[in-house]
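Section handout, structural biology tutorial.
Before the tutorial, make sure you can parse a SMILES string by hand: atoms, branches in parentheses, ring closures as digits. In the record below the ligand is glutamine, and the chain has 246 residues. In the tutorial you will relate the predicted structure tokens back to the input. Do not try to memorize them.
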Amino acid sequence: MKAAVIRFPGSNCDQDCVLALSELGVKTDYVWHKDTSVAGYDLVVLPGGFSYGDYLRCGAIARFSPIMKAVKEYAAAGNLLLGICNGFQILCEAGLLPGALIRNRSLHFVCQHQNVRVEDISNPFLHLCRTGARLRIPIAHGEGSYSADAATLLQLERQNRILLRYVNNNGAAIDLANPNGSVESIAGIINEGRNVFGLMPHPERACDRRLGSDDGRIIFESILASLGAISLDEDAAAPTTSRSLT
Ligand SMILES: NC(=O)CC[C@H](N)C(=O)O
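Predicted structure of the complex:
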């Protein structure tokens, strides 16, 4: 299996994504935003950062990068596309996911470890989790407040497309107390085809216990398993995180 991490001017989590994937044994390339092809990749990641300095709105300019035409075609063909934080913002700006990420309610940049609850596992990105599992994954953003109109929210809900919600330490959705003001505490959503996932938390920063959590690994391991790149056989390369998650 081969993965591509797209580099925009201002991306700053690209190396972390490459490291997280490489440590799971995935051959991972950087692809420059001016390139025009993602042919041959099994996974494409739009990483976090400050593409184009967040000028106008986060992701608003990156969506016009030359690579995005290829990324859209790649996604339309059903391939796996993951957008993390600024990557999620780019996916919304590009129309690959509905809604928008707007300024945090506090108007402050928020950088902290955050609990999120897995709401749905019928997708390639979280299928190794248990529904209701709580993952502790860092967030770091100034524009992470997910917003969508009522019809979109209803559709997301009905189609089980809300994959992650911010929760407190007791596992309850925290609504008005969530870290950025996201409607319905939404931290991550998937497209209708269930192959494009955007999330504000940074799983690539939670792949090593020495960094405070390795709960993010299960997202990458789910992707690998759904692509047949790791075995689900108990005796073989069993996912390392699924055992400990609550
Ligand atoms: N960590 C990130 O990707 C940051 C995203 C974006 N620049 C924001 O502040 O909202």
